[in-house]
Specification:
alpha+beta; Trna Endonuclease, Chain: A, domain 1; 3 helices; about 30% helix; globular
């Protein structure tokens, strides 16, 4: 990141473009919003995606047990129950305009984190007998939201 000092104003040149940190003037042609604004929009979009997936799972007969369950630095977006199986659901919200391969959505480190989170959840909850890690992809387009649900997206290898 490059920083320019101009009087009392500080200009930052980051990955999202050139923007003024303390002020309202912006350079035309760049995404001049501060990073906090961009992250806030991503969080809102992610929360909306999680909300749609929760409603979708409820319609399919799942019981939502937890949302945004945390254990230390690990987080599970949705924990749901169906037919005695506890489903750990990772939600990914993406734009339909940007094609993304499913295998690119869960990196190796994310899969490991999901496995650790599922293990910790099962250890803390005595009623959990069987755990399955699923992936829900929420695609946002001009027609609204579309959900693609992949069961057993992460399988532990021993």
């Amino acid at each position: 990141m490059v920083v320019f000092f101009v009087g009392w104003w500080v200009w930052f040149c980051g990955g999202e473009g050139l923007y003024l940190r303390w002020g309202v003037e912006h350079i035309v042609g760049f995404d001049s919003r501060p990073k906090a604004t961009i992250m806030c929009e991503k969080k809102r979009l992610g929360y909306a995606g999680e909300e749609h997936v929760s409603q979708y799972l409820t319609r399919l007969g799942f019981t939502i047990l937890e949302r945004n369950w945390r254990c230390g630095h690990l987080e599970v977006d949705i924990v749901a129950l169906k037919s005695g199986v506890t489903h750990i659901v990772e939600v990914k919200t993406r734009s339909e305009k940007v094609p993304v391969a499913i295998h690119e959505l869960l990196s190796y480190s994310k899969r490991c984190a999901l496995l650790r989170a599922a293990n910790r959840y099962a250890l803390r909850k005595e009623e959990v007998l069987e755990v399955q890690i699923d992936l829900a992809v929420v695609l946002v387009g001009s027609a609204g939201y579309r959900i693609e649900y992949y069961e057993d997206a992460v399988v532990p290898h021993f």
